[in-house]
Structure formats: structure tokens, C-alpha cells
């Protein structure tokens, strides 16, 4: 039995500030994405998944879990080639196929190419995971430029819409769309104004699509993580916040990417056939209402 208080490292952490989007290999301690712990049981056997931000952090953990459950995976990422190649190798070592595609999901045409590549390589799209995100930390509203606000919404919300719109025509009854929301959708952090607003929008968008797509047999849900130890943290937060990251939760630590795997696998599987329009909170004890 695992004591959740001791299931991951506790701050203070040694990781220093990185330029965005950040590299997992430079983090200390290294994030745990389940390479040594996740054991599949065929829950996604024969399925094809497209995961954005699949190169590191939550995306890598989800991609690995999906592969070990029997799915082939396309991972989308911005430009972190070394992280993407490591993830691709892990998936292939698990006996599944993987396609890694760099590019900017703010571009609707690129989102279309991601879906087309999934269909080209695997013949279908059974699971879409909208996970890639952009955030920056600011202590005043004046620091947030219009360009940054636009980038945050286009990466986190517009891309979600672009990908869903492109994927749905290729999805059959039983398909699943899962978006990464955040505890910030319910409890917005004052220093993450733009990011928090996008996460509220994602949750609302998912709820609407769950109703709209129900007649097609397509389920739409969210996972809402609390503070999770990923490259997004040292690349977007001040160094003093990185050192104490996660200490504000009841468990006094950040979650590890591996601790989200079960939620995504469950929502992607046929066992969740009556779950749609839901948000699964993984927050280390922070209430999500």
C-alpha cells in the first residue's frame, strides 16, 4: 500500500529557471512518468490516440500508459525534439507504434495535419487528448501583453477547438476526447490570469461538446490537475516558486505525471462508457467543486 504523502518528492527542489517550453532532462528531481511503475492490462488494445504536448510531463505519462494499454500513439509537440524522441522510444519499447510530429498547434492547418497523420498511419482516431498548454506568471495585470494573452488562448483553447473539429469526422461511436483542464478553472491563481481563464474555457467547451457529440457516441471529458511537476513549471515560474512548488497542497508536494495516468486511461477506455461531460480532479487534496 502506498502512502500518498510519500508517493513523490517534496520541496524544496533544486531545479533552476529554464527558457520555455522547458526540458524534462534538466529538472531535479526528474519527473516520474511511470516508466518503472505503470503496468497495462489491455484497456486500450487496438486503439489509436493523438496526444498534444505528448513529449514530456503529463503528455509523456499519458502516451506511455496508453501504449502499455495497447494503443498506438501520435504525439504532437512544439520543438522539444530530444524529449519527443525519448517518449517515442519508450512507446516503441512497449510494443506499440508512435509518430512524433513537431509544430505549433496555434495553426489550424497544423492541427488538421496532426489528425490526418493519425488517420494515415493508424487508419482512425479513437482518442484525442488535448494536453499541450502555454502559461506565464505575472504579478501585475500590466505585465500581460496582448500578444501573450492571444498566445495563451490560441494554444490552450483555439487549438482544442481546431483539433476536435478536425478529429470528430474520423471518430466512431465509442471514441473519447479528453482535455487537460486545471484546478485553476475552479480556483484561479492571481498570477496566472490568462492561463486560468483558458482552463475555465476548456472545461466549459468540453461540457458543451459532450452534449453536442453524445448523439454520435463520442464522449468528452476533462482531467483537472493540481500542481504537477513538469517542464512547464521551471520554464514559466519564478525560481523561488519552483523551489517550493506544491507545498501549498494538503499533501505538501506536487503531483507526479505518473499520478495522472489512471484518470486518462479510465476516461479513454470503454469502461467509462457513461462518463461524459465530467471533470476528474487530481489535486493532492485541494477541493474542486
Number of domains: 1
Low-confidence stretches: none
Number of helices: 8
Strand content of the residues, in percent? Answer: 5-15%
CATH superfamily: NAD(P)-binding Rossmann-like Domain
CATH top level assignment: Alpha Beta
List the secondary-structure elements in sequence, H or E: EHEHEHEHEHEHHHE
Query: How would a textbook summarize the main sheet?
Result: 7 strands, parallel
| C-alpha termini separation | 28 Å
- Mean pLDDT metric: 96
The best one-word shape is: globular
CATH A-level architecture: 3-Layer(aba) Sandwich
According to CATH, the fold-level topology is: Rossmann fold
Rounded to an integer, what's the Rg over CA atoms?
17 Å
Trace the largest sheet across and list its strands.
Answer: 3-2-1-4-5-6-7
Write the layout of secondary structure elements.
Layout: E1 48-52, H1 57-68, E2 72-77, H2 81-93, E3 98-102, H3 108-122, E4 127-130, H4 146-167, E5 176-180, H5 193-212, E6 219-225, H6 232-236, H7 239-243, H8 261-268, E7 279-282
Parallel strand pairs: 1-2, 1-4, 2-3, 4-5, 5-6, 6-7
Amino acid at each position: 500500500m502506498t502512502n500518498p504523502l510519500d508517493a513523490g518528492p517534496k520541496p524544496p527542489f533544486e531545479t533552476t529557471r529554464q527558457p520555455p517550453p522547458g526540458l524534462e532532462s534538466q529538472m531535479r528531481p526528474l519527473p516520474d512518468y511511470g516508466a518503472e511503475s505503470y503496468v497495462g492490462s489491455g484497456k486500450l488494445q487496438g486503439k489509436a490516440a493523438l496526444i498534444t504536448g505528448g513529449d514530456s510531463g503529463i503528455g509523456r505519462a499519458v502516451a506511455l500508459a496508453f501504449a502499455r494499454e495497447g494503443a498506438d500513439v501520435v504525439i504532437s509537440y512544439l520543438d522539444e525534439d530530444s524529449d519527443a524522441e525519448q517518449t517515442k522510444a519508450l512507446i516503441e519499447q512497449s510494443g506499440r507504434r508512435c509518430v512524433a510530429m513537431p509544430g505549433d498547434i496555434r495553426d489550424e492547418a497544423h492541427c488538421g495535419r496532426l489528425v490526418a497523420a493519425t488517420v494515415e498511419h493508424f487508419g482512425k482516431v479513437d482518442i484525442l487528448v488535448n494536453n499541450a498548454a502555454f502559461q506565464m506568471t505575472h504579478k501585475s495585470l500590466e505585465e500581460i501583453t496582448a500578444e501573450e494573452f492571444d498566445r495563451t488562448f490560441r494554444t490552450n483553447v483555439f487549438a482544442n477547438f481546431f483539433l476536435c473539429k478536425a478529429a470528430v469526422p474520423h471518430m466512431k461511436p465509442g471514441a473519447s476526447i479528453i482535455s487537460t483542464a486545471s484546478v485553476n478553472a475552479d480556483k484561479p491563481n492571481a498570477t496566472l490570469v490568462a492561463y486560468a481563464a483558458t482552463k475555465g474555457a476548456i472545461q466549459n467547451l468540453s461540457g458543451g461538446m459532450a452534449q453536442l457529440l453524445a448523439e454520435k457516441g463520442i464522449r468528452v471529458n476533462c482531467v483537472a490537475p493540481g500542481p504537477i511537476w513538469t517542464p512547464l513549471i521551471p520554464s514559466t515560474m519564478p525560481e523561488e516558486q519552483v523551489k517550493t512548488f506544491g507545498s501549498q497542497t494538503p499533501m505538501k508536494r506536487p503531483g507526479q505525471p505518473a499520478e495522472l495516468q489512471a484518470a486518462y486511461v479510465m476516461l479513454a477506455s470503454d469502461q467509462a462508457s457513461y462518463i461524459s461531460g465530467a471533470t476528474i480532479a487530481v489535486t493532492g487534496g485541494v477541493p474542486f467543486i
